[in-house]
Automatic annotation (TrEMBL):
<dbReference type="InterPro" id="IPR003395">
    <property type="entry name" value="RecF/RecN/SMC_N"/>
</dbReference>
<keyword id="KW-0227">DNA damage</keyword>
<keyword id="KW-0234">DNA repair</keyword>
<keyword id="KW-0175">Coiled coil</keyword>
<dbReference type="Pfam" id="PF02463">
    <property type="entry name" value="SMC_N"/>
</dbReference>
<dbReference type="InterPro" id="IPR027417">
    <property type="entry name" value="P-loop_NTPase"/>
</dbReference>
<keyword id="KW-0547">Nucleotide-binding</keyword>
<protein>
    <recommendedName>
        <fullName>DNA repair protein RecN</fullName>
    </recommendedName>
</protein>
<comment type="function">
    <text>May be involved in recombinational repair of damaged DNA.</text>
</comment>
<feature type="coiled-coil region">
    <location>
        <begin position="324"/>
        <end position="372"/>
    </location>
</feature>
<feature type="domain" description="RecF/RecN/SMC N-terminal">
    <location>
        <begin position="1"/>
        <end position="519"/>
    </location>
</feature>
<dbReference type="GO" id="GO:0006310">
    <property type="term" value="P:DNA recombination"/>
</dbReference>
<dbReference type="InterPro" id="IPR004604">
    <property type="entry name" value="DNA_recomb/repair_RecN"/>
</dbReference>
<dbReference type="GO" id="GO:0006281">
    <property type="term" value="P:DNA repair"/>
</dbReference>
<comment type="similarity">
    <text>Belongs to the RecN family.</text>
</comment>
<dbReference type="GO" id="GO:0043590">
    <property type="term" value="C:bacterial nucleoid"/>
</dbReference>
<dbReference type="GO" id="GO:0005524">
    <property type="term" value="F:ATP binding"/>
</dbReference>
Length: 573
């Protein structure tokens, strides 16, 4: 349930806080006061796309925050995936800040989140139905989803199994197309694969080659530096020609000096032996330095060859992988693909057999799905008929037309994600008139009532905590409006309902009424929201009835409507 909504700097809203309750919450007010802005703000929390034009003029950012009370089981899998901690009392706080520069900052229980995460959570918390949502009834392709949402769980199980086979069916078709598809395309593919294999083969790649070449290149590029270092060390340690005496000469001299005193004490003899060992080790080092120095040679031709080879490796890595090992793996995969194309007769036969098996299974499942839809359609037609009569559409009948299209197109059935059915709602609004497509003949008011009838039926099985109806009463009045109010009241027994309306018949059914007003302060226009007490509720209903002129008669009428609403709600309870 949505408990609280905080809105800051959205359109003409400066700062508004709304405490929402259980049952039916109704928002009323003059046109342009900001009712739609509140719905836009809720949509922002639900991860819908936003325009920076929504930000209040003169401000650089807008903020919307919502507090929900949530059943943990409803979101536990998402929270686990997102790494979000639950509050012990089930409180969920979602916020979204958006700026004129287009930056979005989203948070879920204080943790930074993405718009996608908001959308995934929002889809399980709130269902928004606006006057434009009735347009879904104008889209024939949406009718099948409405029917399926009413069907039994068996249908969903069949659809899940069907989709698994459909995915495999499409994979096999794609594979076959790559093997025996368009001749020109096949030849082009063969040429590309052969070129790639040949290019890699010609390179004669070796594992570890790049590392060795890079090492050799470093030595050649830095040969002068290496030679200078070795020569200096050789002079200092071995010959001493530039320094007078070398380190080796000095150490050898120390050996001779200790030879003169070793007979006085054993410890001097021991030291002499250790210095002799150093002299021997240093002599070996000097010889090795001289050898290394003599071996260093700057060869510009060799450097050029190494550079060219490394360039070959770089170009291949850019095309086929990040390392020699990956390039060789790619070559093996490409070779396998080429072999399949060139020697595909057996493989094509096997794939065609598999495709035939998948086709048989898909057709069987599509038939079962269609049979379940037919069962669901009969029950849906009956239930919608009852609801439409209750909504003062007694002469209206709605039928669900289901066409099972198993025709062939290029020797293939036209499978889609919903099977082989084409579903369309047909309607007759007057006795004796033939059924015609709902999308073509229903008025706006009729569309609203048909949609409300469907939502009323689904309310019993729909577990969505909160449902929002944004001016779905467009185009209706009188008894029909009264019935719409009663339906919303009925839905609010099992769901939190938020309704934006201009009709007194709906406002009087509310458990919580909110008046949305627009006022000017210090030269600025802003929206304010006031929760109405019983007197305020009566006065607002009187305003809706009588407009600017509120009289004793309109107040009495409003009181009478409220009495009737209370009586209806008590009966429903």
């Amino acid at each position: 349930m949505l408990q609280r909504l905080e809105i800051q700097n959205v359109a003409i809203i400066d700062r508004v806080g709304i405490e929402l309750g259980e049952g039916l919450n109704v928002l009323t007010g003059e046109t342009g006061a900001g009712k739609s802005i509140i719905i836009d703000s809720i949509n922002a929390i639900l991860g819908q796309r936003l325009s920076k034009e929504l930000i209040r003029t003169g401000r650089d950012k807008a903020v919307v925050e919502a507090v929900f009370q949530v059943d943990k089981d409803r979101l536990s899998d998402l929270f686990e995936g997102f790494g979000i901690e639950w509050e012990e009392d089930g409180t969920l706080v979602v916020s979204r800040e958006f700026t004129t520069s287009g930056k979005n900052t989203c948070r879920i229980n204080g943790r930074i989140a993405t718009v996608s995460m908001l959308k995934q959570i929002g889809e399980r918390l709130i269902d928004v139905h606006g006057q434009h949502d009735n347009q879904s009834l104008l889209r024939i392709e949406s009718h099948i989803d409405l029917l399926d949402s009413f069907a039994s769980s068996k249908l969903q199980g069949l659809k899940d199994e069907y989709l698994k086979h459909l995915e495999e069916y499409r994979k096999i078709k794609s594979k076959l197309k790559s093997l025996v598809g368009d001749r020109n395309e096949r030849e082009r593919k063969i040429d590309i694969l052969k070129f790639q294999i040949d290019e890699i083969k010609k390179a004669k790649l070796k594992t570890g080659e790049e590392e060795e070449l890079s090492r050799q290149r470093e030595v050649l590029v830095n040969s002068e530096k290496i030679t200078n270092t070795l020569s200096t060390a050789y002079e200092f340690l071995g010959t001493g020609s530039k320094f007078g005496e070398s380190a080796l000469d000095i150490i050898n001299k120390s050996v001779l000096d200790f030879g003169n005193i070793e007979g006085f004490d054993d410890k001097y003899g021991s030291l002499k032996k250790r210095i002799e060992a150093v002299a021997i080790e240093l002599d070996d080092i000097v010889s090795e330095i001289r050898s290394f120095r003599d071996d260093v040679e700057y060869d510009p031709n060799l450097l050029m060859q190494i550079e060219e080879r490394l360039d070959v490796l770089y170009r291949l890595k850019k095309k086929y992988g990040d390392s020699v090992e990956e390039i060789l793996e790619y070559k093996a995969e490409v070779q396998k693909e080429l072999n399949e194309i060139l020697n595909n007769e057996d493989l094509v036969k096997e794939l065609n057999e598999n495709l035939l098996e998948e086709d048989k299974e898909l057709y069987r499942l599509a038939k079962e799905i269609s049979n379940e839809r037919v069962k669901a359609s009969k029950l849906l037609e009956e239930r919608i008929g009852e609801e439409l009569k209750d909504l003062e559409m007694k002469s209206t009948s709605l039928k669900v037309k289901i066409d099972f299209d198993d025709s062939m197109d290029k020797a293939e059935r036209k499978y889609n994600n919903n099977g082989l059915d084409r579903v369309e709602f047909m309607i007759s609004t007057n006795v004796g008139e033939p059924l015609k497509p709902l999308a073509k003949i229903a008025s706006g008011g009729e569309m609203s009532r048909v949609m409300l009838a469907i939502k009323t039926i689904l309310a019993k099985v729909d577990k969505m905590p909160t449902m929002i109806f944004d001016e779905i009463d467009i185009g209706i009045s009188g008894i029909a409006a009264q019935k719409v109010g009663e339906k919303l009241c009925y839905i609010s027994k099992t769901h939190q309902v938020i309704s934006v309306t201009h009709l007194a018949q709906i406002a009087c059914m509310a458990d919580n009424n909110y008046y949305i007003d627009k006022m000017t302060e210090n030269g600025n226009t802003k929206t304010v929201v006031k929760k109405l007490d019983e007197k305020g509720k009566r006065d607002e209903i009187a305003r809706i009835i009588g407009g600017a002129s509120i009289t004793d008669i309109t107040l009495k009428h409003a009181e009478e409507m409220l009495d009737n609403a209370r009586e209806f709600k008590n009966k429903r309870i």
